[in-house]
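Journal club prep — side note

Before the paper discussion, L.F. wants everyone to see what a predicted structure for a comparable chain looks like in token form. Sequence:
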Amino acid sequence: MPTNTSRRGLLFGAAALSGGALLAGCTSNESKDEDTGGNEQQVADDKPGKKVTIGFAGPQADHGWLNAINDNAKERAKKYADVTLESTEGSNDTAAQIGQVETLINKKVDVLVILPADGKALTQVGLKAMKAGIPVVNLDRVFASPQAYRCWIGGDNYGMGLSAGQYIGEKLKDKKNARVVELAGLDNLELTKQRSKGFDDALKNYPNIKKVARQAADFTVESGQQKMSQLLQAQKNFDALWNHDDDQGVGALRAIKQAGRDDFLMVGGAGALSAFQAIKADDGVLKATVLYPPTMAASAIDLARALGQGKGVSGMAEFEIPSFVTCYSAVVDKDNVEQYMPTGFK
């Protein structure tokens, strides 16, 4: 996979890893369990505790979602009086990021949160941190070895496609010979294949629906506009569009407006603020978007803090945090868009 400085080098092949669910907004739960002989489970909460220095090595903010990852991590760290965040300058260059992580290891931070520019290339430095006794929270793009991290948290690419397909399926289930098209991302990325597979699997439950066209774009506004124009020219009649990415969706919407088309519904992906605003306005084809939430970076800070303090997660019986946390790909439409509006990225 290329490791250039565009988003394509940072969109992730780690799809739906099964695992525990992180419960946000943890509260104190240090009561004694009579059935376990009075053992106390220490869980992370908002009250100041043991001081923890978290090293954060994130991406270069050259895309809305990536910028939101960095912002979510930094804002979450500010929430805790007992957390010091050592943040590197974001980089999509693997050699530079390896050097940044090694600097954090040499500083002897308590925990590391790493969104690698290239999961395979940074595996060795993840192993180095773990061997040095510094637990690693691997954010979204997974390392090649599970020994390189203590916990993985990330998005569900297959689930994105599944949710999009189910939403469209329910909207079109009573329409005879319904036709849908797909504006995918980069086809050489595993995440794109997973999103398309989830979408196709969902549509299998709706025999009245046929996918009649698919075009791969480039996760940019320009590519979205160009590829959507091609789809519109080739397909004069369809009922729904699923677009994998809200940033390229900005361009897709431009093409749709230029073509004067309003005869289908559109579902986006990721959770951009512009998409939420369009859904709320409800005056165009965009009716929903499927989340790939950048809030996972905030949750990664929560997990890192819990690791540094030797605590578990409220709402779970285990004394330790889970090994895997897969974020749910929720559908945001006009019925719940107000709830998600604060999480939208620019």
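L.F.'s comment for the group: The chain has ten helices and twelve strands. Keep this in mind when we get to the figures.
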